[in-house]
Protein backbone atom coordinates (compact mmCIF):
# COMPACT_ATOMS: atom_id res chain seq x y z
CA UNK A 1 0.00 0.00 0.00
CA UNK A 2 1.30 3.40 -1.02
CA UNK A 3 2.11 5.87 1.79
CA UNK A 4 0.22 9.14 1.32
CA UNK A 5 2.38 12.25 1.65
CA UNK A 6 0.39 15.44 2.17
CA UNK A 7 2.34 18.62 1.49
CA UNK A 8 2.11 21.87 -0.46
CA UNK A 9 2.49 21.00 -4.16
CA UNK A 10 4.58 23.93 -5.48
CA UNK A 11 7.47 24.28 -3.03
CA UNK A 12 10.24 21.96 -1.87
CA UNK A 13 9.71 23.15 1.73
CA UNK A 14 9.67 20.58 4.50
CA UNK A 15 7.92 18.08 2.24
CA UNK A 16 11.10 17.70 0.21
CA UNK A 17 12.84 16.09 3.18
CA UNK A 18 10.22 13.32 3.02
CA UNK A 19 10.30 13.10 -0.77
CA UNK A 20 14.10 12.73 -0.79
CA UNK A 21 14.01 9.90 1.74
CA UNK A 22 11.25 8.07 -0.13
CA UNK A 23 13.06 8.46 -3.45
CA UNK A 24 16.46 7.41 -2.09
CA UNK A 25 15.11 4.34 -0.29
CA UNK A 26 12.46 3.46 -2.88
CA UNK A 27 9.47 3.87 -0.58
CA UNK A 28 6.14 3.48 -2.38
CA UNK A 29 4.53 6.90 -1.76
CA UNK A 30 2.01 9.20 -3.39
CA UNK A 31 2.51 12.96 -3.27
CA UNK A 32 -1.21 13.61 -2.80
CA UNK A 33 -1.47 17.37 -3.31
CA UNK A 34 0.73 17.18 -6.39
CA UNK A 35 -1.66 14.58 -7.82
CA UNK A 36 -4.57 16.87 -6.89
CA UNK A 37 -3.93 20.45 -5.70
CA UNK A 38 -3.37 22.68 -2.64
CA UNK A 39 -7.12 22.93 -2.02
CA UNK A 40 -7.28 19.16 -1.65
CA UNK A 41 -4.58 19.39 1.04
CA UNK A 42 -6.46 22.09 2.96
CA UNK A 43 -9.67 20.09 2.74
CA UNK A 44 -7.89 16.88 3.79
CA UNK A 45 -6.14 18.29 6.88
CA UNK A 46 -9.33 20.00 8.06
CA UNK A 47 -11.16 16.70 7.69
CA UNK A 48 -8.82 14.95 10.12
CA UNK A 49 -10.02 14.57 13.70
CA UNK A 50 -8.59 13.91 17.15
CA UNK A 51 -4.81 13.98 17.58
CA UNK A 52 -4.27 15.27 14.09
CA UNK A 53 -1.11 16.86 12.63
CA UNK A 54 -0.83 20.61 13.22
CA UNK A 55 0.59 21.34 9.77
CA UNK A 56 1.97 19.68 6.64
CA UNK A 57 3.99 17.68 5.93
CA UNK A 58 2.14 14.67 7.29
CA UNK A 59 1.66 11.12 6.11
CA UNK A 60 -1.20 8.66 6.09
CA UNK A 61 -0.09 5.04 6.20
CA UNK A 62 -3.17 2.91 6.85
CA UNK A 63 -4.24 3.79 10.40
CA UNK A 64 -1.10 5.82 11.04
CA UNK A 65 -1.53 9.58 10.54
CA UNK A 66 1.47 11.61 11.71
CA UNK A 67 3.02 15.01 11.15
CA UNK A 68 6.40 16.52 12.13
CA UNK A 69 9.11 15.98 9.53
CA UNK A 70 11.60 14.37 11.93
CA UNK A 71 9.03 11.95 13.31
CA UNK A 72 7.81 10.97 9.83
CA UNK A 73 11.38 10.22 8.75
CA UNK A 74 12.08 8.18 11.86
CA UNK A 75 8.84 6.21 11.32
CA UNK A 76 9.50 5.53 7.62
CA UNK A 77 13.12 4.66 8.27
CA UNK A 78 12.14 2.09 10.91
CA UNK A 79 9.35 0.69 8.73
CA UNK A 80 11.60 0.34 5.69
CA UNK A 81 14.40 -1.31 7.64
CA UNK A 82 16.72 1.63 7.02
CA UNK A 83 17.67 2.24 10.65
CA UNK A 84 21.03 1.30 12.17
CA UNK A 85 19.58 -1.68 14.02
CA UNK A 86 20.59 -0.21 17.39
CA UNK A 87 18.13 1.85 19.42
CA UNK A 88 20.75 4.18 20.83
CA UNK A 89 22.07 5.06 17.38
CA UNK A 90 18.58 5.41 15.88
CA UNK A 91 17.74 7.87 18.67
CA UNK A 92 20.88 9.83 17.82
CA UNK A 93 19.78 9.95 14.19
CA UNK A 94 16.39 11.24 15.32
CA UNK A 95 18.16 13.79 17.49
CA UNK A 96 20.11 15.02 14.45
CA UNK A 97 16.91 15.11 12.39
CA UNK A 98 15.32 17.27 15.11
CA UNK A 99 18.37 19.55 15.05
CA UNK A 100 17.81 19.87 11.31
CA UNK A 101 14.14 20.77 11.95
CA UNK A 102 15.24 23.48 14.41
CA UNK A 103 17.68 24.81 11.85
CA UNK A 104 15.03 24.83 9.11
CA UNK A 105 12.78 26.86 11.39
CA UNK A 106 15.60 29.39 11.83
CA UNK A 107 16.14 29.50 8.06
CA UNK A 108 12.49 30.45 7.65
CA UNK A 109 12.81 33.11 10.33
CA UNK A 110 15.56 34.83 8.33
CA UNK A 111 13.07 36.08 5.72
CA UNK A 112 10.10 36.09 8.12
CA UNK A 113 11.63 37.44 11.36
CA UNK A 114 8.47 39.20 12.58
CA UNK A 115 5.55 37.04 11.44
CA UNK A 116 4.87 34.17 9.05
CA UNK A 117 1.58 35.82 8.11
CA UNK A 118 3.29 38.99 6.78
CA UNK A 119 4.98 39.27 3.37
CA UNK A 120 8.79 39.45 3.17
CA UNK A 121 8.41 42.99 1.81
CA UNK A 122 6.77 44.01 5.09
CA UNK A 123 9.69 42.85 7.25
CA UNK A 124 12.76 43.45 5.08
CA UNK A 125 14.65 45.62 7.57
CA UNK A 126 14.38 43.06 10.35
CA UNK A 127 15.23 40.32 7.85
CA UNK A 128 18.42 42.14 6.88
CA UNK A 129 19.60 42.23 10.51
CA UNK A 130 18.54 38.67 11.14
CA UNK A 131 20.38 37.42 8.04
CA UNK A 132 23.61 39.05 9.16
CA UNK A 133 23.46 37.31 12.52
CA UNK A 134 22.34 34.05 10.94
CA UNK A 135 25.31 34.01 8.57
CA UNK A 136 27.84 35.07 11.20
CA UNK A 137 26.71 32.82 14.06
CA UNK A 138 23.94 30.36 13.44
CA UNK A 139 25.00 28.74 10.15
CA UNK A 140 28.55 27.99 11.37
CA UNK A 141 27.29 26.72 14.73
CA UNK A 142 24.84 24.27 13.14
CA UNK A 143 27.00 23.21 10.19
CA UNK A 144 30.03 22.49 12.36
CA UNK A 145 27.75 20.44 14.61
CA UNK A 146 26.53 18.39 11.62
CA UNK A 147 30.05 18.15 10.20
CA UNK A 148 31.33 16.70 13.49
CA UNK A 149 28.50 14.15 13.51
CA UNK A 150 29.52 12.89 10.06
CA UNK A 151 33.23 12.94 10.94
CA UNK A 152 32.57 10.68 13.96
CA UNK A 153 31.95 7.69 11.65
CA UNK A 154 34.42 8.72 8.96
CA UNK A 155 31.83 9.70 6.34
CA UNK A 156 30.72 10.04 3.67
CA UNK A 157 27.37 9.52 5.47
CA UNK A 158 26.46 10.03 9.11
CA UNK A 159 26.62 6.26 9.74
CA UNK A 160 29.76 5.88 7.64
CA UNK A 161 29.15 3.90 4.46
CA UNK A 162 25.40 3.35 5.03
CA UNK A 163 23.11 6.26 4.07
CA UNK A 164 20.24 7.21 6.39
CA UNK A 165 17.38 9.72 6.61
CA UNK A 166 19.78 12.21 8.17
CA UNK A 167 21.93 12.24 5.04
CA UNK A 168 19.15 13.01 2.55
CA UNK A 169 18.07 15.84 4.89
CA UNK A 170 21.59 17.26 5.29
CA UNK A 171 21.94 17.15 1.50
CA UNK A 172 18.79 19.28 1.19
CA UNK A 173 20.07 21.71 3.84
CA UNK A 174 23.34 22.21 1.93
CA UNK A 175 21.58 22.60 -1.42
CA UNK A 176 19.16 25.06 0.16
CA UNK A 177 21.94 27.16 1.71
CA UNK A 178 23.83 27.23 -1.61
CA UNK A 179 20.64 28.60 -3.22
CA UNK A 180 19.85 31.06 -0.44
CA UNK A 181 23.33 32.44 0.26
CA UNK A 182 25.55 31.70 -2.78
CA UNK A 183 28.18 34.34 -1.92
CA UNK A 184 28.41 33.37 1.74
CA UNK A 185 28.58 29.65 1.02
CA UNK A 186 31.35 30.24 -1.50
CA UNK A 187 33.47 32.17 0.97
CA UNK A 188 32.92 29.46 3.58
CA UNK A 189 33.94 26.58 1.31
CA UNK A 190 36.18 24.12 3.17
CA UNK A 191 34.84 25.03 6.62
CA UNK A 192 32.63 21.90 6.79
CA UNK A 193 34.44 19.35 4.59
CA UNK A 194 32.42 16.30 5.70
CA UNK A 195 29.15 18.03 4.86
CA UNK A 196 30.56 18.98 1.47
CA UNK A 197 31.55 15.34 0.97
CA UNK A 198 28.06 14.22 1.93
CA UNK A 199 26.55 16.75 -0.48
CA UNK A 200 28.53 15.05 -3.26
CA UNK A 201 27.81 11.49 -2.11
CA UNK A 202 24.02 11.66 -1.61
CA UNK A 203 23.16 12.36 -5.29
CA UNK A 204 25.13 9.24 -6.20
CA UNK A 205 22.52 7.03 -4.52
CA UNK A 206 21.12 5.43 -7.71
CA UNK A 207 17.39 5.95 -7.28
CA UNK A 208 17.95 9.47 -5.99
CA UNK A 209 20.07 10.48 -8.99
CA UNK A 210 17.11 9.64 -11.23
CA UNK A 211 14.72 11.73 -9.09
CA UNK A 212 17.05 14.72 -8.88
CA UNK A 213 17.32 14.81 -12.68
CA UNK A 214 13.56 14.51 -13.13
CA UNK A 215 10.84 17.14 -13.33
CA UNK A 216 9.43 15.82 -10.08
CA UNK A 217 12.24 17.56 -8.18
CA UNK A 218 10.80 21.01 -7.37
CA UNK A 219 13.31 23.84 -7.75
CA UNK A 220 13.95 26.18 -4.83
CA UNK A 221 11.78 29.26 -5.16
CA UNK A 222 10.74 32.39 -3.26
CA UNK A 223 7.59 30.80 -1.82
CA UNK A 224 9.55 28.11 -0.03
CA UNK A 225 11.82 27.96 3.01
CA UNK A 226 15.22 28.43 1.36
CA UNK A 227 14.72 31.70 -0.59
CA UNK A 228 17.27 33.74 -2.45
CA UNK A 229 17.06 37.47 -1.74
CA UNK A 230 20.29 39.10 -2.89
CA UNK A 231 20.25 41.68 -0.09
CA UNK A 232 20.28 38.94 2.58
CA UNK A 233 23.46 37.33 1.22
CA UNK A 234 27.03 38.44 1.93
CA UNK A 235 27.86 41.48 -0.25
N1 LIG B 1 7.76 21.36 13.06
C1 LIG B 1 7.01 21.05 11.88
C2 LIG B 1 6.67 22.36 11.17
C3 LIG B 1 5.56 22.21 10.17
C4 LIG B 1 5.31 23.50 9.43
O1 LIG B 1 5.61 24.60 9.92
N2 LIG B 1 4.72 23.38 8.23
C5 LIG B 1 4.48 24.56 7.40
C6 LIG B 1 4.76 24.27 5.94
S1 LIG B 1 6.48 23.90 5.71
C7 LIG B 1 3.03 24.99 7.51
O2 LIG B 1 2.22 24.75 6.63
N3 LIG B 1 2.72 25.65 8.62
C8 LIG B 1 1.43 26.20 8.89
C9 LIG B 1 1.44 26.99 10.18
O3 LIG B 1 2.48 27.02 10.85
O4 LIG B 1 0.42 27.60 10.48
C10 LIG B 1 7.84 20.09 10.99
O5 LIG B 1 9.07 20.08 11.13
O6 LIG B 1 7.26 19.36 10.16
Topology:
Blueprint: E1 3-6, H1 15-24, E2 29-31, H2 32-35, H3 38-47, E3 58-61, E4 64-67, H4 69-79, H5 87-111, H6 124-152, H7 165-180, H8 182-187, H9 193-201, H10 206-212
Parallel strand pairs: 1-2
Antiparallel strand pairs: 1-3, 3-4
Helix pairs in contact: 1-4, 1-7, 4-5, 5-6, 5-7, 6-9, 7-9
The site of glutathione has 8 residues, from loops.
Keywords: Transferase
EC number: 2.5.1.18
Domain GST N-terminal: 2-84
Task: Characterise the protein shown here.
With 235 residues, this protein is α+β, with helices and mostly antiparallel strands. It folds into 2 domains: 3-79, Glutaredoxin (3-Layer(aba) Sandwich), CATH 3.40.30; 87-217, Glutathione S-transferase Yfyf (Class Pi), Chain A, domain 2 (Up-down Bundle). The protein has helices spanning 15-24, 32-35, 38-47, 69-79, 87-111, 124-152, 165-180, 182-187, 193-201, 206-212, and strands at 3-6, 29-31, 58-61, 64-67. It has a 4-stranded mixed sheet with strand order 2-1-3-4. Helix 1 links the parallel strand 1 (3-6) and strand 2 (29-31). Helix 5 runs parallel beside helix 7 (165-180). Residues 13-14, 55-57, 68-69, 101 line the site of glutathione. Residues 13-14, 55-57, 68-69, 101 line the site of glutathione (GSH).
Amino acid sequence: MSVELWYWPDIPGRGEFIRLFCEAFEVDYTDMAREQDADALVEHIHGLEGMRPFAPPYIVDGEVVIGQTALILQYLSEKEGQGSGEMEIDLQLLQLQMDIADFVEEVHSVHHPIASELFYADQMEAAFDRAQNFRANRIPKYLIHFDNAIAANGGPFSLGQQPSHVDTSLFQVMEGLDYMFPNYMKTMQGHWPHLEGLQGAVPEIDSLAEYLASERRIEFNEDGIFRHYEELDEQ
